[in-house]
């Protein structure tokens, strides 16, 4: 016979000797002093000793018994029959939440240093961020249309409402991301109701933009609660990794550790980008930039210098990386995340049930943390940055008017422009005989600096039918209620 080995079966029985008969190719396994098993083929014993702790040591053939038994530390859940091998594809689960969570990294100051946890969704994140990298290698690994960080991280790209300048007459049929953010913030405000007839209320927001921002402003939000919440998945990942090491499950240990390193390095690279605001400078001698944004069921009057107003109408957010325009560092991070997914696919099923359970705990807690990060309103973060850091907290007042007619008059009064005809047509495109007569009267009074207080003689036009005179009376009364409401707001402010 040949040399013998010494070990333990997965049921805990002590194996005193394992020997191979060179003549018959049979395997003899001695269980104790009186009981032996003969295996005719090597394959029969392979399954029996699959996860065994075998100490390689040669034993003389003449030794039919051992003087002492091997001592082995028991592993938790060692005899369990269930398996969590399905978690090998953890890189596919929670991908959208992980992707959304990474979108907050460039916005927060400390976020880049707080990614050391075993996050799920590595495959989804790798394939999406790999689209940023530009080279033949990365184009092959991550096929698809090349994109930019601002679009991928959703810090720019929205279309804003139409804008008309009150003095210059400039019209922008579509503004940008910042105008959309500002309009959404105004929509969420509670307006002061203006007395008068009510059909359908429309919000009118007046923003006094007194600060002219620099052509470029860079900064990040500093939330105080972020480090506290982030410590939870980090501590859980470290703890589960350590428990796998104590249980000698090196497969699960290495997979948790690899997940921590891959996510942490990716967070460092993505957090190295500079989040900034930029806008074009105004031309010398340009008139005041007062104008109107026409949002859905919301009118925003912007008042201020051209440089302050175009911060909203023509400004944008951006992300600047040291490796642009090729973004090779982000590409290599995507490769690392892809390798993490492949390694988990192969090695997680090799771990013990206890190690797999620890892997599940680390993934589950990290998934919950990613869901919490995804629930944070990134657009609100950007809007707060725009209002507080860029515009320096402008004075904003909102009013609620009951009809389109009163809304139009209120907006004209708020703009204070002498060129109101086109603006009035944008607000009220009606062009019937009664509407045209009413518009001419309103324009004449505003251009002449007269008040909008009307008498019965103003609508007692004998050339109009009874129904038309009734409509004209209603329109004049709407204009007068808007005028009185605006004058009252001026006195209160």
Description:
With 493 residues, the chain is α+β, with helices and mostly antiparallel strands. Helix content is 44%, strand content 15%. The protein contains 17 helices and 15 strands. It has helices at 42-48, 95-102, 122-129, 136-141, 149-152, 177-188, 226-246, 250-271, 306-313, 328-347, 353-375, 378-390, 404-415, 421-427, 433-447, 456-459, 466-492; strands spanning 4-8, 14-20, 27-30, 36-39, 54-59, 162-165, 171-172, 192-193, 202-209, 216-218, 274-278, 291-295, 298-304, 316-320, 395-401. A seven-stranded mixed β-sheet has the order 7-6-12-13-9-15-8, sandwiched between helices. A five-stranded antiparallel β-sheet has the order 4-3-2-1-5. A three-stranded antiparallel β-sheet has the order 10-11-14, covered by helices on one side. A hairpin with a 5-residue loop joins strand 6 (162-165) and strand 7 (171-172). Helix 3 (122-129) packs antiparallel against helix 10 and helix 7 (226-246) runs antiparallel to helix 11. The model is unreliable at 1-72 (pLDDT under 50).
Adjacency order of strands in the biggest sheet: 7-6-12-13-9-15-8
Mean pLDDT: 81
Q: How is the main sheet built? A: 7 strands, mixed
> What is the first-to-last residue Cα distance?
103 Å
Question: Nearest-angstrom radius of gyration?
Answer: 36 Å
Helix share of residues? 40-55%
Poorly predicted sequence stretches spanning 5 or more consecutive residues: 1-72
Morphology call: elongated
Number of separate helices: 17
By helix and strand content, what is the structural category? Answer: alpha+beta
Strand content: 15-25%
Q: How many individual β-strands?
A: 15
């Amino acid at each position: 016979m040949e040399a013998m080995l010494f070990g333990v079966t997965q049921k805990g029985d002590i194996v005193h000797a394992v020997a191979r008969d060179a003549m018959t190719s049979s395997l003899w396994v001695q269980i104790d002093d009186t009981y032996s098993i003969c295996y005719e083929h090597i394959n029969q014993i392979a399954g029996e000793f699959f996860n065994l702790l075998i100490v390689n040591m040669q034993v003389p053939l003449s030794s039919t018994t051992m003087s002492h038994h091997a001592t082995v530390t028991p592993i938790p859940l060692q005899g369990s029959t269930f398996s969590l091998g399905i978690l090998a594809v953890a890189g596919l689960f929670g991908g959208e939440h992980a992707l959304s969570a990474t979108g907050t990294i460039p916005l927060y100051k400390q976020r880049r240093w707080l990614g050391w946890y075993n996050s799920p969704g590595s495959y989804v994140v790798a394939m999406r961020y790999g689209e940023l990298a530009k080279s033949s290698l990365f184009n092959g690994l991550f096929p698809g249309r090349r994109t930019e960080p601002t679009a991928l991280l959703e810090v720019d790209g929205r279309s804003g409402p139409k804008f008309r300048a009150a003095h210059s007459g400039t019209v922008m049929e579509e503004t940008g991301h910042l105008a959309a953010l500002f309009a959404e913030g105004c929509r969420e405000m509670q307006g002061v109701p203006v007395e008068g007839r009510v059909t359908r209320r429309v919000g009118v927001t007046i923003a006094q933009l007194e600060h002219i921002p620099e052509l470029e402003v860079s900064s990040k939000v500093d939330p105080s609660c972020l480090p506290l919440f982030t410590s939870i998945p980090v501590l859980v990942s470290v703890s589960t990794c350590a428990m796998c090491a104590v249980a000698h499950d090196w497969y699960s240990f290495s997979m948790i550790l690899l997940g921590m390193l891959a996510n942490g390095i990716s967070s460092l690279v993505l957090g190295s980008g500079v989040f900034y605001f930029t806008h074009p400078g105004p031309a010398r001698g340009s008139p005041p930039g007062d104008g109107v944004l026409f949002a859905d069921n919301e009118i925003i009057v912007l008042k201020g210098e051209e440089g302050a107003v175009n911060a909203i109408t023509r400004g944008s957010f951006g992300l600047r990386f040291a490796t642009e325009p090729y973004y090779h560092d982000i590409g290599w991070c995507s490769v690392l995340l892809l390798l993490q997914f492949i390694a988990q696919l192969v090695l997680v099923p090799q771990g013990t049930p206890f190690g797999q359970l620890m892997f599940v705990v680390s993934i589950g807690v990290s998934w919950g943390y990613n869901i919490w990060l995804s629930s944070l309103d990134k657009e609100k973060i950007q809007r707060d940055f725009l209002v507080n850091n860029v515009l320096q907290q402008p004075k904003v007042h909102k009013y609620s008017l009951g009809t389109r007619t009163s809304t139009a008059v209120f907006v004209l009064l708020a703009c204070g422009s002498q060129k109101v005809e086109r603006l009035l047509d944008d607000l009220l495109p009606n062009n019937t005989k009664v509407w045209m007569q009413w518009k001419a009267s309103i324009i004449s009074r505003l251009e002449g600096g007269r008040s909008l207080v009307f008498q019965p003689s103003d609508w007692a036009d004998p050339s109009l039918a009874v129904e038309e005179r009734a409509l004209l009376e209603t329109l004049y009364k709407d204009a007068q209620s808007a005028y009185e409401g605006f004058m009252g707001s001026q006195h209160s402010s």
